[in-house]
Amino acid sequence: MNAAVRAVVRMGIYVGAKVYFVHEGYQGMVDGGDNIKEATWESVSSMLQMGGTVIGSARCKDFRMHEGRLKAAHNLVQRGITNLCVIGGDGSLTGANLFREEWSGLLAELVQQGLIDEEASQKYSALHIVGMVGSIDNDFCVTQRKCYLALVSALACGADWVLIPEMPPEDGWEEKMCQKLSATRSRGSRLNIIIVAEGAIDRHGKAITSSIVKDVSTECLKGESKNLESYLQIQHLYLIKYNNNNTNVFVCTCRSFENNLKTYKLLAHRKPESDNFNVAVLNVGAPAAGMNAAVRSAVRVGISEGHKMFAVSDGFEGFYKGQIKEIKWADVGGWTGQGGSLLGTKRTLPAKHIDKIAEQMRKYNINALLVIGGFEALECLLQLYEARSSYGEFCIPLCMLPATISNNVPGTNLSIGADTALNAIVETCDRIKQSASGTKHRVFIIETMGGYCGYLASVGGLAAGADAAYIFEEPFDIRDLQSNVEHLTEKMKTSIQRGLNSNENYTTDFIYQLYSEEGKGVFDCRKNVLGHMQQGGAPSPFDRNFGTKIAAKAMQWISKKLNESYRKGRVFANTEDSACLLGMRRRALVFQPVVQLRDETDFVHRIPKEQWWLKLRPLMKILAKYKTSYDISDSGQLEHVVLNRPKQSEINKGLCQK
């Protein structure tokens, strides 16, 4: 919330608006007085790393009443405020919409009571509201991450069982859950995780609480059970009113929620093993947090699809050496939360060892290949595709999942591991800034990884509140450095991000020495090279879920391609669309033939020719008080969700269907 407040204040001042804080939420708007104060640029300094909200938030009974909203309207009109940025959950945004609907009527009442004149009523006749969803429940239907905490937490931690109100369990769920727990214990597991969402119910509408689940699991396991009690405020039905056509729309489980649930079921419930096809999975390049979650997902979904799964150790180096073995369902238990690469990973490309790799493909009768890695993985798939003309062993479905902290793979906006790396960078930057909490006028030069790709420096710098980020994609010279030094003489504590290969001459040491010399008597300078700590430890929840879901989708694609290409007792696939990268393009996961990605790739510098995050860079300058322009032409579009109205009987049971 504080990051949003900071951005609203500084962007508002940048566009020439007078910006006000409303302290303590709607209560402050109703009470007025010192609760509504003008904000300055400096008033939002050093708040990025703070939790909660520095302007306060409170539930307000007064605002629910007409008289309270009338007072709030009066307080706003007195200050000439006709634009509101409301950050909150379902209740806050519903209240904001009601306030907007009543605005003209409220002004008329104020005129009638003699509190404002007719001129003020006309001048402030329109109230504009922008709502930003700020809620741990993530229960607002039109936001980008349409998911629920309990289900996504179950995916992230590899829970054995999850109980959610959107999907009440069948009768006899207690016995089935106990059978699942006993089965995992019999395979050597010493820990079971059960996630219970607040509001979970059975098919008859009876509440299922964490206490009930604990008693059931303790009895069936005859011992102490550990429940991950998720007290999540999950509401399963929302009424949204679109004012344009007065259509009442009931919104419940959306496509993303259904996909999450489908993925969880595939991974949580073991299927009978068979051996329709042999599929190998391996990691290539540098380790990235989330790789293990992807491997676990691929193995279990592959087994669910009826395949025999093989794990290759140490990438293609291990492949040509024969480090290949079958991997079972239980072998990947507990992998989701582990960092690094449990399979091992090397940067070795297959071209030099193509004969031996083909030999191993024949030996193990590999029918499909899943490669997880960064830029090297893309090069590997291209080399295997080119080898098809000489080696029939590679005329099989080939799929790549992007996994690299550098986020430099073409064909995807995001790579597995990048989120964990950003978390590590921002957390470290916060600690570095806090180390100087008792000093003034200090500049930190921070070097990030990423090679020639400036993603980590730019997005990490934006999140950490950096004043500048020097990257390869935007060339800079000594005049830019000098300009930044002059700008920093007016600041206090600040940070400068520099990408690893941003410039071969203006190195981190050079910039540090320049700032130290030019800032004498004004500020002192410190240098920090973050190094491999950016690879992070345990993967972030986002990387766990991203790796899990993208690998599941990849295995389903592989199954489809295997069935399509199986002819006369063998698999034969040599078309462009049988060697694909699965990447995230905007909000969709898209399979793209690797040969078609060549034109989008700068192979010399190992980066895509076009990178979406470059559009964010002016924001960093604006928020650091530089004079610059910002392109808002690429605006977002509202996605309207329209589902059928559920039957009353289903609502009473806590069920909601399309």
Structure description:
With 658 residues, the protein is α/β, with parallel strands linked by helices. The protein contains 21 helices and 25 strands. Strands 10, 11, 12, 13, 14, 15, 22 and 23 form an eight-stranded mixed beta sheet that branches. A four-stranded parallel beta sheet has the order 17-18-16-19, sandwiched between helices. Strand 22 (579-585) and strand 23 (588-593) form a beta hairpin. Helix 7 packs parallel to helix 10 (255-268) and helix 11 runs parallel beside helix 19. The chain is globular, with a radius of gyration of 28 Å.
Task: Name the descriptors.
glycolysis; AMP binding; disordered C terminus; identical protein binding; 4-stranded parallel sheet; 658 residues; 21 helices; globular; alpha/beta
Brief summary of the model shown:
By secondary structure, the chain is an alpha/beta fold.
